[in-house]
Amino acid sequence: MKSQLQGLADPSKFQGPISIDGISPEILKSMLNSMSIIRKTEQQLAKGRQEGLIGGPVHLGVGQEAIAVGISQLLQKTDRVFGAHRSHSHLLALNPDFYRLFAEVLGKASGFSKGMGGSMHLFDQANGFFGSTPIVAGTASLAVGAAMAANLQNLNNVGVAYIGDGAVEEGVVHESFNLAKIQNAPVLFAIENNLFSSHMHISLRQPNDKISRFAEANEIPYELVDGNDVVAVFSAAKKQISDMREGKGPRLLELITYRWYGHVDWREDVDVGVNRSTEDLENWKLRDPLKRLCDSMIKKGIWSKEEHDKLDKEIDDKIFKAWNKAIKDDYPHRSSTLKYVYSEQNQEDI
Amino acid sequence: MQTHKYSSAMLSAFEYLLEEYPEVFIIGQGLWSPWYVGDTMTDLDKKFGKERVIDTPVSESACTGAAVGASLAGMKPIVVHPRMDFMIYAMDPIVNQAAKWSHMFGGQAHPGVTIRSIINRGGEQGAQHSQALHAWFAHVPGLRVVMPSTVQDARDLLISSVLCKDPVIYIDDRWLYDLEDEIDDITELDLCDQKPNISVEGIDITIVGSSYASLIARQGAKKLLKDNISAEVIDVRVLNPLDIGPIINSVSKTGHLLVVDSGWKSCGFSSEIVSQVSENLPIGSLKKPPLRLALPDAPAPSSRMLEKDYYPDTDNVIMAVKQILG
Question: What is the pLDDT of residues B146-190, one digit of tens each?
Fold first, then answer.
């Protein structure tokens, strides 16, 4: 397959600093902080899983942090964000409460979903995170509907559907593109194209690696962006989300990225990944979205290595404490299994 | 009191909901050309606008999912599937998303979506335009499944379904549309309080049914009086979550049970009724083995001669009762 991604699929490219011109230092620092939190939170989850403290699967997105962080800078608490199986970053970029994420992944009642969801079913509607569920593409149409609701409610809120390159192989995504367009629904299809669906490289699944070709087919305006350049993500999302708030209908943002871990859990999975080589992985690690931002800020004189080391240490300390607190938290009460099936039983208990 | 047909009672429920609740909207195929749905939705788009009565692309899955998403954003959407067979395309948003949403997230959000689906049997439409799949949905925790068999319920349970915070599958059968009755003015009922009720009182045998099966049970009971058989008919109304209490009470009294159902027999809704009755009554309560009158385990045939055999009617109910009481 000849890549149609403007060189972005070649990991030996785009490894240098990024352009941060025109972006305020506050926004840059905020994004650096958010990406650092997500990175370290997921690394803790990898460790917890490897040590056997986490009972269920964790789909880690280390290496992909810039996407959720760049987009979430533009979102409001009343927007409607939907995720999938790999959604820790989507939630943490809206609310960096890693303690509640740890608690949820550990199945504790203090977690984001009261310990009923685990890593694959996350919820924080108060901060705009309507929910993530792991049926591939399962929430794409829900995001369209939440965006349609914004139109009916005369609100300028937007829906966001985070989906991957694998999800576009599901029929409902194409139904959703079409429905969003015909309904002029303000929904952003944020396509995290990390070139893999589980173990399969995109060249073995599709005739073309450019997912935004489907935007063209549905007359949805789109942009193809380096997903490991947080400023590029932010700038593209800014324009698109602003258009959506002005009633211009759906948008699609294709973000090229790569995950450092395998499909699930802490292993790198080079051996099981079809077309996933050590060489590629090492190269992709050099296109590190966090390091590229950090280096660019240091180069421009608005950040220093000392400040970064301090930030790292602060986050490490907080994560250590949060993890140990979550470990000691209570599991949901045994009555929870039946209690949450219907709204009525839930109410009785309140 | 007002006189309504089953279909016009449904129409009046839609009008009431759109009038009273700005958060209600309807989405589905054929809504701007309502021959799809009998006369249950006539001119709703003209009266309430095409923004709130949305005819859609041929995308059952995305449209159902969109309604689920809209419900999470504070709307009260109604999805219409004019043929239940096509709704199978929408199983993921119904079964994986809506049914489990509350549970997965610890009861913090509820998709209050109503999915109206029509059983469209007969008329030589064959295997893919005729299915009654209520048992599938009643199997899934988190879904409420409603099947009205009377004119009053057609209207009132539709309103209750839409006002309910949980996802509801509301199923109506076109064979009921011409049923006519005098009904009370609208009172909003809490769906959580709605249970199976006794639609005909009797002492010799209990006949349980829902939707059209309940109608032929009532008609059968009426005719059986001529043979001095007093049948009690229980109309299930809400299949999930099922309150078996009224059925147990009735069978305790009559000692005989016939379950009539418009779905298939194997692993069908009728099986559930018989199982729960068997589990909950002492040995010897049933004086004769119970019987299920349901569809044969075969897809619906198209030819009218075969259709006649395939669908149970009032005479089949009478014969089944006589077989049990033998």
Answer: 999 999 999 999 999 999 999 999 999 999 999 999 999 999 999
Domain boundaries in chain B? Answer: 2-193, 197-325
**For tokens 């998709």, what's the residue?**
B111
Q: Does the distance separating the beta carbons of B166 and A140 come in below 8 Å?
A: no
Q: What does the pLDDT profile of chain A (350 residues) look like in tens digits?
A: 899 999 999 999 999 999 999 999 999 999 999 999 999 999 999 999 999 999 999 999 999 999 999 999 999 999 999 999 999 999 999 999 999 999 999 999 999 999 999 999 999 999 999 999 999 999 999 999 999 999 999 999 999 999 999 999 999 999 999 999 999 999 999 999 999 999 999 999 999 999 999 999 999 999 999 999 999 999 999 999 999 999 999 999 999 999 999 999 999 888 777 788 999 999 999 999 999 999 999 999 999 999 999 999 999 999 999 999 999 999 999 999 999 999 987 654 44
Contact B258, B320 (CB under 8 A): yes
Query: Is B4 a catalytic site residue?
Result: no
DSSP string, B101-155: HHHHTTTS-----EEEEEE---TT--TTS----HHHHHTSTT-EEE---SHHHHH
Same fold, B2-193 and B197-325: yes
Amino acid identity of residue A55, one-letter, is: G
- Tell me whether residues B69 and A141 touch, CB distance under 8 A: yes
> How many contacts does A have with B, using Cβ atoms within 8 A?
165
Q: At a CB cut-off of 8 Å and minimum separation 6, what does B104 contact?
A: A113, A116, A117, A121, A123, A131, A133
Q: Does B88 touch chain A (CB under 8 A)?
A: no
C-alpha distances out from residue A4 to A112, A197, A203, B54, B233, Å: 39, 18, 11, 38, 67
Q: Do A125 and B108 touch (CB under 8 A)?
A: yes
CATH, range B197-325: 3.40.50.920
Q: Which domains does chain A have, with CATH numbers?
A: 28-349 (3.40.50.970)
B117 burial (CB, 10 Å; 0-12 / 13-18 / 19+) is buried
Contacts of A340 in chain B (CB under 8 A): 102-103, 106-107
Q: What is the pLDDT of residue A347?
A: 53
Adjacent-strand bridge partners of A253: A190, A223
B267 near A CB under 8 A:
no
DSSP A267: -
Nearest 10 degrees: Cα torsion A20, A24, A25, A30 = -100
B76 touches chain A (CB under 8 A): no
Chain A residues inside the 8 Å CB shell of B141:
341
Residue A222 is classified by DSSP as: E
Residues of B in contact with A179 (CB under 8 A): 56-57, 59, 62-63, 66
The answer to whether A169 touches B127, Cβ cutoff 8 Å, is no
CB contact under 8 A, B62 and A116: no
Q: How far apart are CA A130 and CA A125, in angstroms?
A: 5
How far apart CA A321 and CA A228 sit, in angstroms, is 29
Provide the pLDDT for residue A346.
64
Q: Which residues of chain B have pLDDT under 50?
A: none
B2-193: CATH topology: Rossmann fold (3.40.50)
CB contact under 8 A, A115 and B93: no
* Residue B307: active-site member: no
What does the pLDDT look like over B66-116, one tens digit per residue? 999 999 999 999 999 999 999 999 999 999 999 999 999 999 999 999 999
Cα–Cα dist A218/B149, whole Å: 43
